[in-house]
Write a structure and sequence with these properties.
mainly alpha; 22 helices
């Protein structure tokens, strides 16, 4: 797809219609859509993340990002994404991929200097100055380049730096913003993606404190006036998803009270915004937390409430996950029949495959997770051999790049094998978890290993068990 050297000649740059003066129209990126082929947006996003890891890049790509590219909202990727796409599709240029050239998108504006602030948060005028298309496009391009800076700051910065840079502002300036726009909302959404990506890779313990300030900032932005209803809706959804993500970090690191508070905050946000997708997500996580807190009836009821919210969304995978959450509640209550009925519904919905309506946060819910959640149900029902079989399959299916989930699945396997009377096999699975601990910080996984060690202690005469117990004790002592 050729691009014009004149920004005004590019129909995607500044096309205005008599019916909607001043509004930019978008041309879908059909070339990029063809490259995705038969893969779903979520599957293609996973392929992008894998390619990024192969070349040492960090991109928080998800189904929403792929959708923004395909509908023409992202007319030119930032440099990190460009390197990944060129790696995935050797020999193709940006225009071959359906993007506009960087020079066209940038317009005539100069590249910002390294000393320039990441995001300018001065009050915006109601409309841009007339005939100033180049300013608009330079600002749009700058935001996408900044997103790469934000990701790197979140990855490497101190707590204070992350709090300020990952959303581009601190709490004081958040209250000073008079109009919330694309830059602020995109920063909230990017923070959600970044938290999820880092949690997949490293676990929750080291991230929870980092994520608290961006969450406070996101809710401070809700008190500022948004320019448009659509912006306000995105901000509500972004803030709610950020609350759930931070709640999960608290949940996985054993801070159950704080997790409960964050999930309740997300649920309240969903109700205020009339957002059934956010409501279903909040109930899904509340169900998971209730199960872990030893409240199985609450877990079952929260999952059922999530199911009611999700029915009209058109996502079989979401209904499958909620059925699994309900199954976990029934298992905790010792009701094997109701658990099996919920598991049957979960399998039927999962078999319907992915859908365009699948929420982007569900990228983790693949067959490996389906197996893991079944293992937890059978474990709660005391069927340890059956639980171990599902946990083994979960570990075998899991993408090894997601170290946190792989460690979790192997920890479940070690525990199930120990309870099933297979101490040597349990110790081997425990050793595999210990191999991953330098990459993963998760209180949940440490607690599971502690339980496994307690069960294996009477079998210390086994060389395999003794080696595992000694190595774990040394790791805990460090």
């Amino acid at each position: 797809m050729a691009s014009s050297p004149d920004p005004q000649a590019d129909p995607r740059v500044n096309t205005r219609t008599p019916q909607s003066p001043g509004r930019l129209t978008r041309e879908p990126n059909l070339a990029f859509r063809q490259l995705r082929g038969t893969r779903s947006p979520g599957e293609f996003a996973a392929a992008v993340r894998r390619a990024a890891r192969e070349i040492g890049e960090q991109v928080a790509c998800d189904a929403r990002y792929i959708g923004r590219v395909e509908n023409g909202e992202i007319r030119c990727p930032n440099y990190a994404y460009e390197r990944v796409f060129r790696y995935m599709f050797p020999g193709l240029t940006l225009t071959d991929l359906g993007f506009s050239t960087r020079e066209t998108v940038r317009g005539r504006g100069a590249r910002p200097t390294s000393g320039a602030p990441l995001l300018r948060l001065t009050p915006r005028p109601t409309a841009p100055p007339p005939h100033d298309a180049s300013h608009h496009h330079h600002h749009h391009h700058q935001n996408h380049e900044e997103s790469d800076v934000l990701r790197r700051a979140f990855m490497t910065g101190s707590t204070a730096t992350v709090a300020a840079v990952s959303l581009g502002l601190g709490p004081a300036t958040a209250h000073a913003v008079q109009r919330v726009g694309e830059a602020e909302v995109s920063a909230v959404e990017e923070a959600v993606r970044r938290i999820r990506l880092l949690d997949d890779q490293h676990g929750a313990d080291g991230l929870y404190q980092r994520a608290a300030q961006p969450l406070r900032t996101a809710y401070a932005l809700l008190d500022a006036s948004a320019a448009r209803a659509a912006t306000q809706e995105r901000l509500h959804a972004g803030a709610g998803e950020l609350a759930i993500s931070v709640g999960w970090l608290a949940h996985d690191s054993g801070r159950f009270g704080e997790a409960r508070s964050h999930y309740a905050e997300a649920l309240a946000t969903s109700r205020l915004a009339g957002d059934p997708g956010l409501e279903a997500h909040a109930f899904c996580n509340m169900s998971f937390l209730a199960r872990d807190m030893g409240r199985p009836r609450e877990a079952m009821r929260a999952a059922q409430a999530g199911d009611r919210a999700a029915r009209a969304l058109g996502s079989p995978r979401l209904l499958s996950l909620l059925a699994l959450r309900e199954a976990g509640g029934w298992a905790g209550l010792g009701d094997r029949s109701a658990c099996e009925e919920s598991l049957s519904r979960a399998h039927a919905q999962f078999a319907r495959g992915t859908a365009a309506a699948d929420p982007e946060w569900m990228s983790f819910f693949v067959e490996a997770e389906l197996e893991m959640l079944q293992a937890q149900c059978w474990s709660a029902l005391g069927d340890w051999p059956r639980a171990a079989r599902h946990a083994q399959r979960a570990a075998d299916l899991q993408d090894p790049h997601f170290a946190r989930n792989l460690a979790l699945y192997r920890a479940e396997l070690a525990d199930d094998l120990a309870r099933a009377g297979a101490p040597a096999e349990s110790a081997a699975a425990g050793q595999a978890v210990l191999d991953l601990l330098p990459q993963v910080q998760s209180t949940r996984i440490q607690a599971m290993l502690a339980d496994t060690s307690r069960i294996l202690a009477p079998h210390r005469a086994s060389p395999e068990v003794a080696a595992f117990l000694e190595r774990r004790a040394a790791a805990v002592a460090v």
